Amino acid sequence: MKLFELNSKDIGVDLGTANVIITLKGKGIVLNEPSVIAIEKETGNILATGNEAKEMLGKTPDNILAIRPMQDGVIADFTGTQLMLKTMLQKVCQRYNAGKPRVVVGVPSGITEVEERAVEESVLQAGAKEVYIIEEPMAAAIGANIEVSEPAGSIIVDIGGGTTEVAIISLGGIVVSNSLRIAGDKLDQDIINYVKKELNLAIRRNNSRTNKNKNRLRKTIINRRRARNKRKKFKHRASRSINNKFYTSTRSNA
């Protein structure tokens, strides 16, 4: 199968909603950065991609646009995706002398033909010689060393940033699959909403990305809960004290 007859110059791309992961045979993962790009509006020049661009989200002036060109696992901004991929692929090709590589791109199983062509065109415009599209559940099964060609069903659940892929694989193909556009980003937002509602604490999505921020957030939540419980106990004691005084006063008057 030509798809898997890869040489050292062939590249695999996981074009995700949250991150773009690029692998090179013999090297493993050579790039893992957020799917974010910052562009100057007037000139169209690329100011930053990946980690550097992510730091700009929500903090840019009017003349700079920082966006996530991937939404729900598919291309929402064709130009932004093309420029982001081109920059990242060029970075990898220059660093590892890959030239014009053949590229295998993982896409959601529920992608439409229009969206698939958009992905293929973006990668070709980014400098690839050839592009092969593979569904993410199949790529995940192969990466997990599952014998996909065997006459036995294997259930794959792939939770990404924008989509959750569920598929049954047998005899080298996907028997049945479903792509849900509810995944990591939605879970993050639910956590943010819960913390805001229950603890009256506003947090950003980036707050939970590092261990330092996780520990800080955990301590803040614990302290807020303790303070809330203390207020409840104080109110309860104050209420009991007032009731007891009122009861005592009533008995005395009687």
Structural write-up:
The chain has two domains: 143 residues, 2-Layer Sandwich (Nucleotidyltransferase, domain 5); 36 residues. The relative contact order is 0.10. α2 crosses α3. With 254 residues, the chain is an alpha+beta fold. The chain contains six helices and 13 strands. Strands 3-2-1-9-10 form a five-stranded mixed β-sheet.
Features:
single chain; 254 residues; alpha+beta; Nucleotidyltransferase, domain 5; 2 domains; five-stranded mixed β-sheet; three-stranded antiparallel β-sheet; 6 helices; 13 strands; disordered N terminus
**SSE sequence, one letter per element:** EEEEEHEEEHEHEHEEEHH
Q: Architecture of the largest domain in CATH?
A: 2-Layer Sandwich
CATH class identity of the largest domain: Alpha Beta
Strand content: 25-35%
Count helical runs.
Answer: 6
Shape: globular
Number of domains: 2
Gyration radius, rounded: 26 Å
Low-confidence stretches: 1-8
CATH-level-4 superfamily name of the largest domain:
ATPase, nucleotide binding domain
Give a nutshell description of this structure.
With 254 residues, the protein is α+β, with helices and mostly antiparallel strands. 41% of the residues lie in helices and 26% in strands. It contains 6 helices and 13 strands.
Write the layout of secondary structure elements.
Blueprint: E1 11-15, E2 19-24, E3 28-34, E4 37-40, E5 46-49, H1 51-54, E6 64-67, E7 70-71, E8 74-75, H2 78-96, E9 102-107, H3 113-125, E10 130-135, H4 136-143, E11 154-159, E12 164-170, E13 173-180, H5 184-199, H6 211-253
Parallel strand pairs: 1-9, 9-10
Antiparallel strand pairs: 1-2, 2-3, 4-5, 4-6, 7-8, 11-12, 12-13
Helix pairs in contact: 2-3
